[in-house]
Amino acid sequence: MNNLEKIREKIKRSERLHQAQLLATKNGEVTPYRNSVFKRRQQKAIEDMAKY
């Protein structure tokens, strides 16, 4: 693996982290990750995917 590939992987990793951070916020506030909230959001995502 040469340096260019390592740099690309690092950029991709940072973009995924940034996207995850954006998804974890809601109107600039961090959404709570209590187990019940997580399960509800997970179920809603499954339902939304099932529609398509």
Keywords, separated by commas or semicolons:
52 residues; two-stranded antiparallel sheet; 2 helices; elongated
Strand order of the largest sheet: 1-2
How many β-strand runs? 2
- What is the 3D form? elongated
Poorly predicted runs of 5 or more residues = none
* Largest sheet report: 2 strands, antiparallel
Q: Report the sheet-strand fraction.
A: 5-15%
Give me the strand/helix succession. Answer: HEEH
Task: Describe the structure in brief.
This protein is mainly α and 52 residues long. The chain is built from 2 helices and 2 strands.
Please characterize this protein's 3D structure.
75% of the residues lie in helices and 8% in strands. By secondary structure, it is mainly alpha-helical. Strands 1-2 form a two-stranded antiparallel sheet.
Topology record:
Blueprint: H1 3-24, E1 25-26, E2 29-30, H2 35-51
Antiparallel strand pairs: 1-2
